[in-house]
């Protein structure tokens, strides 16, 4: 681990920070796993409408154990619930919503993000079984493509890099990255630092980032609730 | 006209060795488990299967693979809670895999059903999935040409069906089922209830009967998730 690990945000805090940027009424797709947490942290007074690839718009949270209906699941195959206003549709319509540019935000995980916005998140390139799902469709066509990720790998290597080394999910597609240490935008082929956790210096942050962090205006403190709710 | 069949065995009897078979469902939701199990009993081999996934546990598509009936699988996401059956077959070289991004898979099927041999999509441009495929720039943006996907048979699951083949679906079990119904020469559907013509409000028909050839009633269909929680194995 790196020397900055003491300052890291939890996954819940990263998800909370990403949720603050989702506008009221936005149509949002959350990737399976970690990004699904974003739905828990919608700011009061705002209501996003969540899309899942398998054909639901505006679904609710997980049901109580034992109340699951296995015809009512999300893309992660987890049970969800109906809400007033839920809509069902088939897979070609679901991806017409995606590919047709109707989704406001897609939020995904990442193995690597390059400074030009290239994303690698589907294959470790080590000969496992490849599985892409809907990620390649989402990243090319949602209006905003945000990534949630630890700032570094488990081995302490940068995940924000000059060029991806792993197989790409999409080219120049990521617009904003929420990491365990910072909020970084991709602007004109460069990483632009917007926020960083106060306990880490700019030099420390740069030392765990694989491409130059540019400053364009003020860098805000990245402060999240200890226990986001 | 009556497209209903008295039994699952009768409904799947026409599927020969070497057939290409679309199987509806997303994970277990909308998966026609009983039709798949009837296909296992029927014995057809050397199948090419098109599904979003690669099966879970030891029932449904996973069981079909475990019985050695599938030579090739076209899917977007061959991972699941228990992907052992597919993973072992793949690592042993017993099954060929074509990975297709999920939206491209859906649109290739839609195109197959609609008589559109190819289309352009922004999905996968610049990735290894697009290697070797023609590309073209439209209005300043790059797109990949993808081809239609058709099948000899589709096995699908619905909620209500009538003797004409008109169908409805249940919640998110709709997923790939309606588009696969359009893209196969012979679509075989299991539904929870067969009703007389007029038993489905025309406003509520999702799959019009023209796309469905054979219909069989399975009144209490299995859910893959529940079978797997009970550690079921087929056969």
* CATH class division of chain B: Alpha Beta
Query: What is the count of DSSP helices of chain B, taking H or I runs of 4+ residues?
Result: 7
Mean pLDDT of chain B: 97
Question: What is the total tally of β strands of chain A?
Answer: 13
Q: How many independent structural domains of chain A?
A: 1
Estimate the strand proportion of chain B: 25-35%
Radius of gyration of chain A: 18 Å
Please tell me the overall pLDDT of chain A: 95
Largest interface: A-B, 39 and 53 residues
Can you offer a commentary on this structure?
The complex is a heterodimer of chains A (229) and B (235). Chain A is of the alpha/beta class. Chain A has one domain: Glutaconate Coenzyme A-transferase (3-Layer(aba) Sandwich), CATH 3.40.1080.10. Chain A has helices spanning 11-19, 91-99, 135-141, 202-207; strands at residues 27-30, 49-52, 56-57, 87-88, 105-108, 112-114, 119-120, 144-149, 160-161, 176-179, 182-187, 190-196, 213-221. Chain A has a ten-stranded mixed beta sheet with strand order 4-3-2-1-5-8-10-11-12-13. A three-stranded mixed beta sheet of chain A has the order 7-6-9, with no helix packed on it. In chain A, strand 12 (190-196), helix 4 and strand 13 (213-221) form a beta-alpha-beta unit. Chain A starts with 10 loop residues before the first helix and ends in an 8-residue tail after the last strand. The model of chain A has no long low-confidence stretch (mean pLDDT 95). Chain B is of the alpha/beta class. Chain B has a single domain, classed as 3-Layer(aba) Sandwich (Glutaconate Coenzyme A-transferase), CATH 3.40.1080. Chain B is built from seven helices and ten strands. Chain B has helices at residues 8-12, 33-42, 61-66, 84-91, 102-114, 177-183, 224-229; strands spanning 20-23, 47-50, 70-75, 96-99, 118-121, 135-138, 141-147, 151-162, 184-195, 214-217. In chain B, the strands form two sheets. Chain B has a seven-stranded parallel beta sheet with strand order 4-3-2-1-8-9-10, with helices on both faces. In chain B, strand 8, helix 6 (177-183) and strand 9 form a beta-alpha-beta unit. In chain B, helix 5 (102-114) crosses helix 6. Chain B starts with 7 loop residues before the first helix and ends in a 6-residue tail after the last helix. The mean pLDDT of chain B is 97. The interface between A and B is large, with 39 and 53 residues.
């Amino acid at each position: 681990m790196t020397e900055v690990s003491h300052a890291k945000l939890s996954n819940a805090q990263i998800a909370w920070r990403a949720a603050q940027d989702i506008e009221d009424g936005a149509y949002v797709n959350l990737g399976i796993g970690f990004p699904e947490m974003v739905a828990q942290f919608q700011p009061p007074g705002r209501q996003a409408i969540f899309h899942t690839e398998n054909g639901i718009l505006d679904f609710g949270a997980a049901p109580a154990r034992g109340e699951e209906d296995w015809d009512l699941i999300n893309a992660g195959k987890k049970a969800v619930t109906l809400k007033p206003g839920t809509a069902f549709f088939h897979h070609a319509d679901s991806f017409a919503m995606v590919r047709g540019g109707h989704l406001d935000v897609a939020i995904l995980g990442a193995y690597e993000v390059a400074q030009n916005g290239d994303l690698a998140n589907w294959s470790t390139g080590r000969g496992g079984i490849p599985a892409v799902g809907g990620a390649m469709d989402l990243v090319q066509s949602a209006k905003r493509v945000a990534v949630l990720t630890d700032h570094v790998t488990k081995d302490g290597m940068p995940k924000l890099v000059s060029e991806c080394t792993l197989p790409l999910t999409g080219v120049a597609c990521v617009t904003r990255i929420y990491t365990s240490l910072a909020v970084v935008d991709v602007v004109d082929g460069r990483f632009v630092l917007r926020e960083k956790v106060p306990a880490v210096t700019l030099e420390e942050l740069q030392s765990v980032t694989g491409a130059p962090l540019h400053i364009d205006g003020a860098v805000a403190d990245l402060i999240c609730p200890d226990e986001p709710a | 006209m009556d497209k209903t069949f008295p039994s699952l065995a009768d409904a799947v009897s026409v599927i020969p060795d070497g057939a290409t078979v679309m199987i509806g469902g997303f994970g277990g939701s909308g998966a026609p488990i009983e039709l798949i199990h009837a296909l296992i009993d029927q014995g057809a081999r050397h199948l090419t299967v098109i599904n979003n996934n690669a099966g879970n546990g030891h029932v449904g598509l996973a069981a079909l693979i475990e019985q050695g009936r599938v030579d090739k699988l076209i899917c977007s996401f061959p991972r699941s809670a228990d992907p052992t059956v597919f993973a072992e077959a793949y690592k042993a070289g017993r099954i060929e895999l074509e990975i297709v991004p999920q939206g491209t898979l859906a649109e290739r099927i839609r195109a197959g059903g609609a008589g559109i041999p190819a289309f352009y999509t922004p999905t996968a441009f610049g990735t290894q999935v697009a290697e070797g495929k023609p590309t073209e720039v439209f209005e300043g943006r790059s797109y990949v040409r993808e081809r239609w996907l058709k099948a000899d048979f589709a096995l699908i699951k619905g909620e209500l069906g009538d003797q004409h083949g008109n169908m409805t679906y249940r919640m998110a079990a709709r997923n790939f089922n309606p588009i696969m119904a359009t893209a196969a020469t012979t679509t075989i559907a299991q539904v929870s209830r067969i009703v007389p013509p007029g038993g489905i409000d025309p406003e509520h028909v999702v799959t019009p009967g023209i796309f469905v050839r054979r219909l069989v009633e399975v009144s209490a269909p299995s859910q893959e998730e529940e079978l797997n929680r009970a550690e079921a194995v087929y056969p």
